[in-house]
Amino acid sequence: MEEFSVLIGGRAGEGINRASAVLNRLMARLGRYVYMYYDYPSLIRGGHNFAIVRSADRPIGTHRERVDAVIALDRETVRQHASRLSPGGVLLFDSSVVRESVGVPVPLDEALDAEGAPPITRNSGMIGAFCRAAGIPWSLVETVFEREFGRHAGINLRVARRSFEMVEERIRIPRIDRRPLPVLTGNEAIALGLVRGGLDTYIAYPMTPTSSILHLLAGFASRTALSVVHPESEIAVILMALGGAYAGSRCAVGTSGGGFCLMTEGLSLSGMAEVPVVIVLGQRPGPSTGLPTYSCQTELLFARHAGQGEFPRLIAAPADASEAYVWSARALELAWRFQVPAILLADKTLCEGGYSAVIDPDLRVAAPDDRNAMMPGEPYLRYRITPDGVSPLRTVPSAGDVIKVNSYEHDESGTTTEDAEISAAMQRKRREKARTLGEALRAYETVDVSGPDTARVGVVTWGSTAGAVREAVDEQPLRLVRPIVLEPFPTEAFRAAVDGLERLIVVEQNWTGQLEQLMRLHGFGADGRVHRFDGRPFTVEEIVSRLAEVV
Amino acid sequence: MATSDLITPAPNTWCPGCGNFAIEHALKDVLTGMIDGGTPREEFVLVTGIGCHGKMADYLGINSFYAIHGRTIPVATGIALANPDLRVICCAGDGDCYGEGLEHLVFAAKRNVDITLIIHDNRVYGLTTGQYTPTSPLGFPGRSTPAGSPEYPLNPLALMVATGASFVARGYSRRLPQLRQLIRDGLSHRGLSFLEILQVCASFFNQTAYYDEHAYDLDPSEFPTRDVDRALRVAREWDYSTDSRIPLGALYRTRLPTYQEHLAAHRAGTRDPASAIRGFLDERR
After folding, report:
1. What domains can be seen in chain A, in order of their start residue?
2. Cα separation, A525 vs A509, whole angstroms
3. What number is the ipTM of this complex?
4. Whole-prediction pTM
5. Considering chain B, what is the average pLDDT of its residues?
6. Is the pLDDT of residue B70 over 90?
């Protein structure tokens, strides 16, 4: 694989995120596939931020330890990351603030002074220098700055031009003759997928790592007929969503583990009242406040068991932006078709990472089958018992109907009951619905499998960790097995995927082995495991070496 | 649809003498009048919490969302946002709305969301058999406070006037004509209608004699007022703990743009998701 990684670092507030967006566009416009990792502490000013923009001649979904260029806006970046440089790699540093270093000095103060530019343009200055050093033509820099900065492009471009001329070309990143793919964060893909799935209302309380879905959709509300609401708490968030769904609005909510804790009573209500909702759950390390801006895979079992009582739910964990788009749309489709809560389980790596994404704006989303035809005559029974457990769904107002939904156990009309026979019938109805949902999922790819048929060892993983595992497996005779749907667990598809394998190694970002526990529950043992729990995602090199230890 | 079946056949399990009967019938009478007057029955939606009041959802033959304890208001808000033409009635208890769900009450007032809130305030937890609530008097000997409640009661009327509710009233379950009028006014008011109903709990806190003796009607030529200071003075006349006269009736009313109106003003654009997605992707290239 031909690839190139550039790391840009500085203090929080120096525009590292924006700089990485510019680098994403530059690499995408060179026809390359991009992955961007963004690492920042939970603060607004100070602290160390860095982003790694990795690009290659084939699709990638992770970064490496090694980088080919480091762009340092401060000394800390040099101190922490210079050692990551590959042989022949380039270190560019702002020589106005970093005094002693080997590499390419960029006297940014001179560039800014010459243009009378504000300090916020320092990131643009460093990118200008990098582009020259990396052999990126000035015309491309201009195009990208204009698209990224819009009416603020002018001063940023002038500073970039100054520093572009301060350095020499050192390397040349290969251009690939291919139409550039847009680089999207997971959150952007999720937001677009929800829109594709027919979202009417998005409701959320801000919480890293899903806040940017709220921001993006709030901006979108002016160009679609979308409502976006930011209420007083996650408790209000999910209950407003359920009220909206009852009144015919397709609602989704977004949060992280802490907010999801507050949503659990609403989740259980959704299960009992059979009022659908989609919950985007972006994982970050806990317990409690934990590491707010870092990543983990610790909420699989929480998502699966949250809420009192037993009720069906859907949990899907996409690995990258393209898949997040599809499964966000599908989560809405399935939640409404089966009148269940659907949880889209993401993590900080996916939510805030950047991916070259293949997005089909015309992705087909099935409309719920018209079950009202199954129910001629009056009165309407919200919880009518049907062979597959799914009742005809009507929402208020429906002329001539009285529509009653209920958190208590209820009869077919939605009226409270404590009758043993009716209670058992309703539990059976919900159980039947879980089975029906599981069967419907067979129509989709619920388990991703890749690798040679001759492989004897399978590496099982889920969610964003797949990016690193896939590349590690590519280099070895191993089979990647990744359940995308985790509840209802796709037992048959998983069995087919591990067919012929002698050993299974499970890679996940937690220390209790949550996927492994889930596998065991469905009859699949693991023979080895690789765990990481420091909040940082796996890199390719780490997976390769740690797999070598256990395989 | 006829209105003769506005009371469902579900067996009623309130205690004899319970104030909920009066609230149920006042609401039924108002709904009957409005439906007979031409409002489609399916445009009414009742949201209830958990507690004795919640059974209203089973007993009234209209659309209902029997929600969970403390969370009636966010559910009602979600319904009202999804369809501003619906008439959303939210019945909640005092433990429900002033205890577990107080944050939502404050935000409903702050937003002036167009719903009608009917609080069945019996000042005791009935369904869990007699604990103190946020409006029980200081010293109330509930089952969780056998030595007497150590807390001062909350004054919900003062709270609502102070936080922005645009219609604030107090009724009493033994003053049926006034109760009907307050519910009717609440339903016709645009914005948050807050109706605090002093409700007799026959089993755990029967205040009938006390309310009969202390309650008086506000002078309709002076109230409801739009003057917050005057409304607050009346709201504070009785502190739910010490002996004083208890004013009944509508005390505060004003017209402010509602939450729904503010949100609708911000909404525009296409219903076509594909073109919105295409537009976003083009900007990202």
Report:
1. 3-164 (3.40.920.10), 183-356 (3.40.50.970), 371-442 (no CATH), 447-550 (3.40.50.920)
2. 18
3. 0.97
4. 0.97
5. 95
6. yes
